[in-house]
Design a protein that fits this description.
The complex is a heterodimer.
Chain A lengths: L1 H5 L9 H24 L7 E6 L11 E3 H14 L5 E5 L7 H13 L10 H32 L1 H14 L8 H8 L3 H25 L3 H9 L4 H36 L6 H11 L3 H29 L3 H6 L1
Antiparallel strand pairs in A: 1-2, 1-3
Helix pairs in contact in A: 4-12, 5-6, 5-8, 5-10, 5-11, 6-8, 7-8, 8-10, 10-11, 10-12, 11-12
Chain B lengths: L1 H5 L10 H10 L4 E14 L2 E14 L3 E5 L6 H9 L6 E6 L2 E2 L7 E4 L11 H11 L4 H14 L15 H14 L4 E5 L7 H17 L3 E5 L3 H7 L2 E6 L4 E7 L14 H14 L6 H6 L18
Helix pairs in contact in B: 4-5, 4-6, 5-6, 8-9
Classes of the chains: A mainly alpha, B alpha/beta.
Chain lengths: ~325, ~300
C-alpha cells in the first residue's frame, strides 16, 4: 500500500529497476494496443476480407468491403436462396498489423527500386539526413553565436530579437516557392526551409538560456579581474554550454519535423518521397515502416548525443541532481 | 536582555592597556581603504530612496573590520560599491590613496551565495584570477595549489564544486579571492548560508588565515557574535537611510578564541550592539512581541497549558 503510494510522490525518482521497467512499458504498451487491434478479430475490424464471393457478382477473393455492405449482401443472398459470400473480419488497408510492418521494414531495404532512376531506401534516407544535417549546421552557425550575443549584451538583444520574434511566426513552408525560385529544385531549397524553420526559434531559445546564467558568477569573475571578452568566453559560454547542448538536442528534433514539408518542395526526395510513393501504391506497411525509421533515427541520435554530453561535460552530472 | 542587565558588565569603551596600545598602533598603520562622503540613492516608482548617506571611514593595513546593521541599512549595497559592482551616487573611494572605479582584482570578494564556477575544478577555480592576470600556466598551477593547501583542501583540488559541502565551497571561494593577492578582501555574509557548527569552524579558519596572510578584511554580517569575534573594529550602520551610527573598537583582546565568547568585554560589546541595532521602541512589547492571540486549544485537551 505505502509502496504503491510512493510511486505517486511528486518529483520523487523511482528506484532504477521500476524506472527501467516503465521505460520499456512505454514502448510495449502502444505496441500491445496495436497488436490487440490487429490480431483480435472482435476488436474494431470494421471491414471484411472476402475469401469466397458466393453469389455476389462484384465480390472477389481478397477484396476488402465494409461490414455493413457484406452483411447486407449476405442477407440478400440468403433470401434469394443463393450461396452466401464468405469472409474474415479485417482492418482497413491503412492499418497494417505489426508483423507486416516489421516485414516491410526489412523488405524496404532489400527490395530493388521499381524504376531504374529511383533510389534505394537507404539512399533516400541518406538524402534526408543530408538535408537535416546541413540545415541544422547552417542554422546553428548563425543562431548559436547570435543567441549567445543576444543573451549577453542588451545591444544585440534589442537589435535582433524584435525582428526574430516577428519572423518566427512566419511558417517556414510558406517560403517554399520562394526558396525554389532562388535556390533551384534540388537539395538547396529544402535545406533553406529547415534553416528558416529552426534558426529563429534557435536564436530566441539560446538567448533565453544565456540569460539564465547566474549573474553572481559574472560578478565574481569581475572581482577576479575578468573583463569584456574574457567574461564572454570564460564565464558566459562555459556557464551555459550544458544547457545550450540540451537545447540543441531539442532543436534538432524540431528540424526533423520540418523535414517532411521541406522534402515536398521542388523535386520530392528523401524519406518523404519514399512515403508518398508507397502511399500512392497503398503499401501502408511501407509507410509505417518509413515513419518508424524517422523515429528510430531521431531517438538514437538523441541518445547518442545525450551519452556524448555526459562524457564531454563531467560537471553536469550532479548539476541535474542538485 | 533582562538577564544581561542584571549582570554587572564593564563599559564596552573600557579597554585594557594591551588592547588600547594595540589600537594606537593599528591606527598608525597605513590606510588601505578610505571611504569619503559616500552616498547612494536609488530611483524607484515611489521616488528616490537613499540607501547610504554620507558614509566615511578608513581601514588600516591588516585590519579586520566588520560592518553590521539592521536589515535595510544598506550594508550589502556598501560592499557592492566597494567591490565596484555598483556605482555610488556621490563620494569617493580610495584604495591606497588612489580612486578606484569598477570591479578589479585589487578588491577580492567572497559572496554569500556560492559563486564557484561549476564547470571548473577546485584548482581551476582558484587559478581563474591568476590566469586573467596573464601568468604562465605552470606558475598559476603551483600558486593555486598553495592557496588550496592554505584552506586545507588539497585532497579536493580535482573535485568539481558540486562535490563539495557548503563550508568547503566557501573555503575555495576564499582561496580563489586570496590567490589574486588583493589589497582588501571584501566578504558579504560569507557564512550566512552555513549551519551554526560549520559557521563557527569557518570563523576560526578565517582568523587563522587572517593572522598568517597579509590581508585587510572588510566583513559584512548580521550576526552580532560573529562581528565581535572576528573584528578589530565594528562599523555599525543604521537603517533608513543607511548611516554610520558608531565605529566600535572591540575591547576583546587578540588573538581571539571561542572561550572569549563569555568574557565580560565580549558581553559588554554585545550589549552595546544590541542597543544600537534593536533599540527598544515605544509600545514594542505590547504590539509586536505579544500578538493578540486567541486561544485555539480544545478546552478538554490533555495538555492544558505549555507551562
Amino acid at each position: 500500500m505505502t509502496q504503491s503510494l510512493q510511486w505517486f510522490a511528486p518529483r520523487r525518482q523511482l528506484s532504477p529497476r521500476p524506472r527501467l521497467a516503465l521505460s520499456i512499458m512505454s514502448f510495449v504498451l502502444p505496441l500491445l494496443i496495436w497488436s490487440l487491434v490487429s490480431y483480435v478479430p472482435w476488436i474494431w475490424h470494421p471491414q471484411v476480407e472476402i475469401t469466397e464471393p458466393g453469389s455476389v457478382a462484384y465480390f472477389k477473393p481478397g477484396l476488402l468491403v465494409d461490414r455493413e455492405l457484406f452483411d447486407a449482401e449476405s442477407a440478400k443472398a440468403l433470401e434469394a436462396g443463393k450461396p452466401q459470400p464468405q469472409g474474415t473480419p479485417a482492418n482497413p488497408v491503412y492499418l497494417p498489423a505489426p508483423h507486416e510492418v516489421v516485414k516491410a521494414f526489412y523488405l524496404a531495404f532489400t527490395t530493388e527500386p521499381q524504376r531504374r532512376n529511383e533510389k534505394w531506401l537507404h539512399q533516400s534516407l541518406g538524402d534526408s539526413i543530408y538535408v537535416i544535417f546541413w540545415g541544422f549546421v547552417i542554422s546553428s552557425t548563425i543562431g548559436l553565436p547570435l543567441g549567445i550575443l543576444c543573451g549577453t549584451y542588451d545591444v544585440f538583444s534589442r537589435l535582433a530579437e524584435p525582428f526574430v520574434e516577428f519572423f518566427r511566426y512566419l511558417p517556414a513552408p510558406a517560403f517554399g516557392a520562394l526558396a525554389v525560385a532562388v535556390l533551384g529544385i534540388y537539395q538547396a531549397p529544402k535545406i533553406a526551409i529547415i534553416v528558416i524553420g529552426t534558426l529563429f526559434q534557435q536564436v530566441l531559445i539560446i538567448s533565453n538560456t544565456t540569460r539564465k546564467l547566474d549573474p553572481a558568477l559574472l560578478e565574481a569573475a569581475q572581482t577576479l579581474g575578468a573583463q569584456r571578452l574574457s567574461l564572454l568566453f570564460r564565464v558566459v559560454i562555459p556557464g551555459i554550454i550544458t544547457d545550450v547542448y540540451k537545447d540543441m538536442r531539442i532543436l534538432l528534433g524540431w528540424a526533423w519535423t520540418y523535414l517532411i514539408v521541406a522534402e515536398l518542395i521542388g523535386t520530392s526526395s528523401g524519406i518523404t518521397w519514399f512515403i508518398t510513393q508507397q502511399a500512392r501504391y497503398k503499401n501502408f506497411d511501407n509507410v509505417f515502416a518509413a515513419i518508424m525509421m524517422i523515429g528510430i533515427i531521431g531517438l538514437s541520435t538523441d541518445l547518442v548525443l545525450a551519452y556524448l554530453g555526459r562524457k564531454i561535460f563531467p560537471w553536469q552530472r550532479a548539476e541535474a541532481r542538485a | 536582555m533582562n538577564a544581561m542587565h542584571n549582570i554587572e558588565l564593564p563599559s564596552y569603551l573600557e579597554q585594557s592597556d594591551a588592547v588600547h596600545d594595540r589600537f594606537k598602533r593599528l591606527k598608525q598603520r597605513p590606510v588601505v581603504l578610505e571611504v569619503k562622503g559616500l552616498n547612494k540613492s536609488f530611483k524607484t516608482a515611489q521616488g528616490t530612496v537613499t540607501a547610504l548617506r554620507d558614509i566615511n571611514f578608513v581601514t588600516h593595513k591588516r585590519e579586520f573590520v566588520c560592518v553590521i546593521g539592521p536589515s535595510g541599512c544598506g550594508k550589502s549595497t556598501l560592499i557592492r560599491i566597494l567591490a565596484g559592482l555598483e556605482t555610488p551616487t556621490s563620494g569617493q573611494l580610495l584604495l591606497d590613496g588612489k580612486a578606484v572605479h569598477g570591479p578589479g582584482p585589487d578588491r577580492g570578494m567572497v559572496f554569500q551565495a556560492y559563486t564557484l564556477f561549476p564547470w571548473l575544478t577546485v584548482k581551476k577555480n582558484v587559478m581563474f584570477g591568476l590566469e586573467r592576470a596573464g601568468r604562465g600556466r605552470v606558475a598559476c598551477e603551483e600558486e593555486a595549489m598553495q592557496w588550496i593547501e592554505l584552506v586545507g583542501l588539497s585532497r579536493f583540488a580535482k573535485s568539481y564544486p558540486h562535490q563539495l559541502s557548503g563550508g568547503m565551497k566557501q573555503r575555495v571561494a576564499i582561496a580563489r579571492a586570496l590567490a589574486n593577492q588583493p589589497r582588501i578582501l571584501l566578504m558579504d555574509e560569507p557564512f550566512g548560508a552555513l549551519d551554526a557548527q560549520t559557521r563557527a569552524r569557518m570563523q576560526s579558519y578565517l582568523m587563522e588565515i587572517w593572522k598568517n596572510i597579509d590581508i585587510t578584511v572588510l566583513f559584512i554580517t548580521h550576526d552580532l557574535e560573529e562581528a565581535i569575534f572576528l573584528a578589530d573594529r565594528i562599523l555599525v550602520l543604521k537603517a533608513h537611510p543607511g548611516e554610520v551610527q558608531e565605529l566600535i573598537e572591540v575591547p576583546v583582546p587578540q588573538p581571539r578564541s571561542p572561550e572569549q565568547l563569555l568574557s565580560p568585554e565580549f558581553l559588554a560589546t554585545k550589549k552595546r550592539l544590541e542597543e544600537l541595532i534593536h533599540p527598544p521602541q515605544e509600545g514594542d512589547a505590547v504590539n509586536e512581541d505579544n500578538l493578540h492571540m486567541v486561544r485555539m486549544v480544545s478546552v478538554n485537551d490533555e495538555v492544558e497549558s505549555v507551562f
